Amino acid sequence: MEFDKLNDGVTGFMKGHMIWLVIPFSVIISWMYTSLEQVGESTENPFEGTPNDVPISQLCRNIEIDLREMLGEKELPAPIKAQNDILV
């Protein structure tokens, strides 16, 4: 085990007990992979309309407004406003 090899270069109260570092390092690595999995699941489908998704409706509406302005139309749809600080 790699942590057991560290015993040769350590002095003090940890000498001979470096193998116990496996536990906290395993917990940290497990937490990192769990967090990565949760981020992956929340970004798996970016167009569902949840708070972390791409505001596709607002983007489409802005493109529509810009195109209609370029065509010279006067009656333009209203831009989509955020609801509870979330763009859907």
Automatic annotation (TrEMBL):
TM region(s), chain numbering: 12-33
Classification via InterPro entries: YneE/VCCN1/2-like
Subcellular location: Cell membrane
One Pfam family recorded for the sequence: Bestrophin_2
Cited PANTHER family: UPF0187 PROTEIN YNEE, VOLTAGE-DEPENDENT ANION CHANNEL-FORMING PROTEIN YNEE
Protein family: Belongs to the anion channel-forming bestrophin (TC 1.A.46) family.
Protein name: Uncharacterized protein
Species of provenance: Chitinophaga ginsengisoli
